[in-house]
Each structure stands twice: as C-alpha cells, then as structure tokens.
Amino acid sequence: MPAVTADTLTLPRLPHLPEAATAWREVRRVVRARRFLEGEGFQVRRPFPGVDLPDADPFLLLDHMGAVEYGPGEAKGAPWHPHRGFETVTYMIDGVFEHRDSTGGGGVITNGGTQWMTAGSGVLHSELPSQELVAEGGLFHGVQLWVNLPRSAKWTPPRYQDITAAQTVLLSSDDGGALVRVIAGDVAGHRGPGLTHTPITYLHATLSPHARLTIPWPEEFSAMAYVLSGRGTVGSDHRPLTEGELAVFGNGGSALTLRADTTWDVLVLGGLPLREPVARYGPFVMNTRAEILQAVEDFQAGRLGVTHVPHVTAADEELS
Predict the structure, then answer these.
(1) What letter would DSSP give residue 81?
(2) According to the annotation, is 83 in a ligand binding site?
(3) Which domains are seen in the chain, by residue range?
(4) Whole-model pTM?
C-alpha cells in the first residue's frame, strides 16, 4: 500500500495526550461494509449509507474500491454521469484514475493523490482507469467519499481540485509509530490541502504493529474510523476493528485513540453535522423532493452541466 510514504522520524509530531487527563471518545457502534457493484460493474465495499448506518452527517457515502489485481481488459470505471448538491472526494492508494468533467476540469490521479469535485449546482463527469491499466492490468485500490453541501452551498458553481500526493500534509504520531496523511481539515494546527464547504477532517493513517495513535478531535465533530487493511482496536473501550469495518465514535470527548495489532491502514474522518433535511435520488442530493425533481428534469433536458462533453440523456445513464 504505497499511497504517500515517509520516514516518521523526520515529520512534525502530534502532541502527546496524557491518558488520565484526556476526554477520550468511546465507540458507539461498529458497522461492516456491504458489497455493491458500481459504474461499469466494479465492486465496492460500502459501510454507509445502509440499514446499519443510514445517516453519517455530514457524509453521504463511503465506497472502498479494491484492493484488486486486475488482469488485462478487466479494469472498469464510471463513464459520464451527473451529480448535484454535494462533493465527491476520490483518494487513490494504488493504480490510476482519470477524471473529466463538463466544466473542463479533470486530471490523472495516482498513488496518494486526491480528486475533489464539488458538484454544486450540477456537473457531468467521468472516472475511468487509465488506458494502460485497462490494457495491461495491475493493482487498483482507492476510496470515494461523498460530502454533503449545506443548503446555502447547494447551488455553488462546480469546482475541481487536483490534490497531488506531494501536497498531502504528513505528520507522525507522538511516538513515531504512525504516519498520518492529512487530506482535509485541521489536526493540531496542521491543515490539509482540501478546500471544503462543509467543515470536515479526513485522514489516512498507517500504524506499525502495536503502535498507538492519539488525535486531538473537535468536540462538535462527528468521528469515524474505517479499516483499509490490517487490524487493531479503537476508542477508550478498545473495540476490535478489522478490514472492511467502520467504527462510529460517540459524541463528546476531545480526542481519539487507536492501537494497531498488525500493520494497520485506517481512514479517520468526521465533520460538523449539517442537521438539515436530506432528499436524495441516485446522483442528486438536495433538501427537498421538489429540488430532486428539478435536478432530474434539468438532466433530462440537458441543462445540467456545461456542454464540454457530448450530450448525455437519461437513456444513456441509469439514475441509480
């Protein structure tokens, strides 16, 4: 799992948090991701939304893509499709993904890079593996997170951020046993490169066996930890957590604690809950049913997105 690697002894360190004097968060529940097919038929593991965790405010969806070793001709992606009302954050660990959208934005994302697309008022986009990956096969591993936009930003103009691996902020745990990659948000005064409309924090941590990671965390933020690989324990109650499982922390408390049993790769994320009505239909997330109907009508009429791409009709793309 390459992502971004570094010598933790050379990095800024997170502050030491004293055990007895810190308000640690406990784990409220553990959810196991379910498997789904997306796009042209690639498999994802999805811990939310679902019957076990319908609401992860301010997040809407988390899809874990891979890790999978594709043979020649097997790699698949998601060709042109619409979005409105939220942001998609695609973080690539292994492999290559190419993004294009109807505003003219886009780029190639590879090991440790992030594509941050604000759909806002509406955009068409595609996410496809590189031609080389399709032709030759290879390792593919990534994560896509959907972040809801507040009512006041639902109609913001679309925006694309190409965050390279080199722009990711790197930190070390207080004892040097964990590497922390800050994609967005502020961690102990270290701010990640992602520009957000909704206040969130989004991290990828790699812990060495038996290492401990403690993270100061805003009391008003939600908090979750999702395991990409390996196993360990989370929370002040030391709940076991292994690959494909999501821990949801309870409210209150100003810090998170994680301890690895093996080499352990974990996403740590949370944000300020919007606490607004959510109306969603496939690729559209708004506040009311009427706004969803308008989004569907705009898409069918070709009014969604700027025409930098061939016209896409509802017959071409399934709204699901």
Answers:
(1) E
(2) yes
(3) 10-271 (2.60.120.10)
(4) 0.92
